[in-house]
């Protein structure tokens, strides 16, 4: 962790600011002047449809996170839609997904399934 | 307060029609020709999620995260630390990855907010001018609400409701307690952070006592008559810890009216209880900066527009997580994380002068009754009638008649959730 840096003359000269690149204080000074600092590191993502971002609390969007909740990233949207329909009707056994699936309409489920499906696994 | 009113979807549409969308572009950014700036106060599950999600959605927006602690200590799963099942280090997360993602992390306290000039002042003297401010300070414990219970008393009767040194103190006290002692938990009235938390804590302490100090008892003195997942907890207590846990609700005289840390006693309307270990969870309110910013009302919590999370009291300030009055949504980390991502989407739309989409939210709260015995409550929420309400027919608690493998699976999913959410926010 890199703290106790101070960049005078900047509106953001927090004395205990964590900086992204602890190796180079010169770079830090330059970086602070760039209003879009960080833009190069991450491209804008497709906006999640309503409800989708709450799903990612358990069904990680980052494929590197290992979790017992089935991975949805990159899965065929039709499979996700079918699973949720089966959870909703009680045909597919579940611990919690039966309770959650009942809160979503067909259109909402389809949009969420496509959002997950278009992500790269 | 300015003449502006908080922007909800309806007033947004009206105003767009009346004055044109350009006029809605925030003034500070227009004046300086600089990137738009969103300041987020509070680096917990709500604030850290929101800052990161906003940067991901809109890399050109300047996002500042203000947090006074260098290390975040997660409350979820901290009850397992109290019971000796986890270490505190497993609860700790730093802000390095958030900083690497392009969010400006300011390790300082926010000391003032001026809603008219849009300026946040930090404890290190720096000032941040925002186009939109997100306030996510979590809770403050109320030291004025329970006679005898102040910060000094908490060194003898830990609350352990903010994870960290208090969590370890309670764990040490349990470990030092002789077999045959009584552990007393004082639980507060609603609303408070983590509604099932006191009962999960009682369960995991009972798990510890049963194995290490089997002659001991656990007494829960409660300021309410019902609690989250009550039947699931009570059934599990009978099954796993018979005769060990006693719960006294409000109408049976359970409300603690004063405590004496020197004598280690807790007094209710009818009785005085002597404790070997006392865990006092006092009443709470939104974190202090919410009062300073003028977004908390007389209840101590922050009323919001359920469609945009914008404060009802101050325009251009959004409130998420435990500090917000989020209707039917509980004050949980899952809810905070879900609100934060929806709020990030809303703020992103408002910054570009577009209409935000109506949010749809989920909460799932797992509790461990034993390390291999999990239970849950879930809900799906949407804005209706000025509140976040539960979607009818969805949600609810784990089945009362579930098998042990089902409970094991829920315990497994609980850990999976913790891993996923902490990776998403801090990893």
From TrEMBL, chain B:
Q: Keywords, A to Z?
A: FAD, Flavoprotein, Signal
List the signal peptide residues: 1-31
- Pfam name, any one: FCSD_central
Q: Which domain of life is it from?
A: Bacteria
Which intervals hold domain Sulfide dehydrogenase [flavocytochrome c] flavoprotein chain central?
A: 167-282
Which residue intervals define the domain Flavocytochrome c sulphide dehydrogenase flavin-binding in the entry?
358-426
Keyword Nucleus carried by entry:
no
Indicate the segments forming the FAD/NAD(P)-binding domain, all copies: 37-149
Molecular function as annotated in GO: flavin adenine dinucleotide binding; oxidoreductase activity
From the Swiss-Prot or TrEMBL record, give the protein name: Cytochrome C
Q: Which organism is it from?
A: Telmatospirillum siberiense
